[in-house]
Here is the input.
Amino acid sequence: MKNINKGFILLLFPFLLARNKVTVVNFEQLQNSSAKKSNDTLYIVNFWATWCDPCVKELPAFQQEYKKYAKRKVKFIFVSMNSQKELGKVQNFTDTQKLEGMLLLLNGGNPNDWIDKVDSTWSGSIPATAMYKSGKKVYFREGEFTPESLDKVIQSKNK
Amino acid sequence: MKKLAFLSAVFITLCSFAFTGYNVGDKAMDFKLKNVDGEMVSMSDYPNAKGFIVIFTCNHCPFAKAYEDRIIALDARYAPKGYPVIAINPNDPTAIAEDDYATMQQRAKAKNYQFPYLVDNTQNIAHTYGATRTPHVFVLQKSGSDFIVKYIGAIDDNSDDASAVKEKYVENAVESLLAGTPVNPTSTKAIGCGIKWKS
Here is the structure.
């Protein structure tokens, strides 16, 4: 029995490795992964949810940019606003869509405590996207991108 | 050249004012919008109201759905005390089919809404108020013939779980207005579905 289990796990292992796992984080952990990084990498943080149609619609544009900048100092972080209860649903979605980049699910408590810390102009609607470089916010947008507008913004911020 | 820079600065400032909607303390405009029963509804139709809980909401948004029962409870509690709920759906139904008038009627009927659920066809009211997401609440207090904005923001601090709520923002605001004490906080933020604007 033990051997069968071991074999099964070994068989599964490549799949487990290949899977881009969605990690649940609090707000501080999110900030540490992006806003507070002091290196010269451009961190692009996209707030989205599986139930948000315009968010889902713009994800392919982000994935295209991910591929374009794969070998450069640009990191993509996709932060799901789904409830933590929906972690499985989010993971299924990101698996099916083969989403690349860092996948997080924010369990930040009361949004009123952290929305302003992302950007004081953000009313809380999604999609929303923030970009950071050298520990500073260089861009914020509440609302969706077209593939062209996203490409243009990343190009201008990655100089 | 300097003058041009100055003028463009003024222009940009004016533009940003034009798009930010109401702040707490502003006078809110009345409206005349179609209810799910086909009748037109205005705030001036309520001579005995002390104010209103105006909620921009919709049919499809998971947050709006999560708050539906709490919106019903707010109206049941505060309409008798002079602060009825007026729900307004600002979404463009061509963007989200589920936000159409027929589905609004179904929701109101299924849940037996005792408050109006209005359709903001031109999206003018949502634009003027500065609503950006659903649900987005504006608590107004009547002062003579004016409606003064007293609170803007979320219903409470936990969309996910009504039983885990710690801060009932709208309830606290209305209680303060009823007691004649200052509203605190006067505005809050929450994650919500962006309003689907007509292009």
About this structure: Chain B has a mean pLDDT of 92.
